[in-house]
Amino acid sequence: MLSRKGLIPEDYLLTRLAEDVLQPKFKTKQRKARFVAKNGTCNVAHTNIREQGRFLQDVFTTLVDLKWLHTLLIFTMSFLCSWLLFGMIWWLIAFAHGDLDQKGDDFVPCVTDIHSFSSAFLFSIEVQVTIGFGGRVITEECVSAIVILILQNIVGLVINAIMLGCIFMKTAQANRRAETLIFSKHAVITVRNNKLCFMFRLGDLRKSMIISATVHVQVVRKTVTNEGEIVPLDQIDIQMDNPVGTNSIFLVSPLIISHVIDKNSPLYDLSAADLQQEDIEVIVVLEGVVETTGITTQARTSYLSDEILWGHRFVPTVSEEDGMYAVDYSKFGNTVKVATPSCSARALDEAGGMESVRLKESSGASVRRRTRHQDTKEL
């Protein structure tokens, strides 16, 4: 989404294109529809909503949620309709009082210089937007005109408050800030600190920080309960590996968020072969407060099973140059292959962990070397 809108440097765009070419592609069965798209939009259609009136009970939120074209149309029509309505009222007041007829010099009209509906419409605009050209003036002759003057000013202020507030909220929506919060295209599963871990990378392209940033990760998949109930979208929370025990992060430079696949993880029984057959989706939600505006923002993405690379690791992007740390976003999504057991985390724990696997591999390699050495001597 960022590459289409041109919000990141060209060299990063080239890197993202290179990722599409260099990363391995897995031929898998037809996947189900994803729950959250890569750009963060939710792939959910709400149908058969019978109580449509509930949206009108929250008019302001409904106006903010509308498309820009519809919002600008309502913005324009709200002022035009109010001007026309009160223009009609001013014309009726002038008609009832006889101001439209030619009178003598001693006649005092309700509003001076109103001779037709056009002049009443112009006076309505002058009253509501407080232009005051000075040609048409209300007098103390008609009490009804004074009441309408007060009423139109109040209605105009209410319309200004609602519509300008709606325009402001649309321009300051939190999802605009989320355009510069980026996620790696692929997630990886590899060994970190002798534990099998699920990892992805996220970063912020702006210098202004996201305060109190938190990351929430869920696994969405179809499950069947013990009673036989089918849950098509079972959302299971997974805990991120954080030393302070929370999901808060300090997002100054790109971070690799890690989840240790242990016995409490929904990925505990997943092996490299099972990964390509399972219909799972990992949803990542980054939430925090924008430093410059104080508005809470949220960025989302998801990873399907064929977007999770087994046995890969992210390359470093931060280096120290001239006394400061430099971030190379051209390497943001790059990964390299590393030696990783293809078995599940459960099988790895049952085998005694990574240390036992390494000992078995080293002993097996020694046996193979001795066998080859003996075969060479016999020849």
Automatic annotation (TrEMBL):
GO cellular component: monoatomic ion channel complex; plasma membrane
Domain of life: Eukaryota
Role in the control of polyamine-mediated channel gating and in the blocking by intracellular magnesium (site feature) positions: 160
Catalysis: reaction(s): K(+)(in) = K(+)(out)
Topology within the bilayer: Multi-pass membrane protein
Transmembrane segments: 72-93, 143-168
Molecular-function GO terms, alphabetical: ATP binding; ATP-activated inward rectifier potassium channel activity; metal ion binding
Keywords for the protein's UniProt record, in alphabetical order: ATP-binding, Disulfide bond, Ion channel, Ion transport, Membrane, Metal-binding, Nucleotide-binding, Phosphoprotein, Potassium, Potassium transport, Transmembrane, Transmembrane helix, Transport, Voltage-gated channel
UniProt-annotated stretches for the region Disordered: 356-379
Compartments (UniProt record): Membrane
InterPro entries: Ig_E-set (IPR014756), IRK_C (IPR041647), K_chnl_inward-rec_Kir (IPR016449), K_chnl_inward-rec_Kir6.2 (IPR003279), K_chnl_inward-rec_Kir_cyto (IPR013518), Kir_TM (IPR040445)
GO biological process: nervous system development; potassium ion import across plasma membrane; regulation of monoatomic ion transmembrane transport
Residue ranges constituting the Inward rectifier potassium channel C-terminal domain according to the UniProt record: 181-350
Ranges where the Potassium channel inwardly rectifying transmembrane domain occurs: 36-173
UniProt similarity note: Belongs to the inward rectifier-type potassium channel (TC 1.A.2.1) family. KCNJ11 subfamily.
Quaternary context: Homotetramer; the homotetramer binds four ATP molecules (one ATP per subunit). Forms an heterooctamer with ABCC8/SUR1; one KCNJ11 homotetramer interacts with four ABCC8/SUR1 molecules. Interacts with ABCC9/SUR2.
Functional summary from the UniProt entry: Inward rectifier potassium channel that forms the pore of ATP-sensitive potassium channels (KATP), regulating potassium permeability as a function of cytoplasmic ATP and ADP concentrations in many different cells. Inward rectifier potassium channels are characterized by a greater tendency to allow potassium to flow into the cell rather than out of it. Their voltage dependence is regulated by the concentration of extracellular potassium; as external potassium is raised, the voltage range of the channel opening shifts to more positive voltages.
Full protein name: ATP-sensitive inward rectifier potassium channel 11
Annotated source species: Carassius auratus
Source taxonomy: Eukaryota, Metazoa, Chordata, Craniata, Vertebrata
Encoding gene, per UniProt annotation: LOC113043573
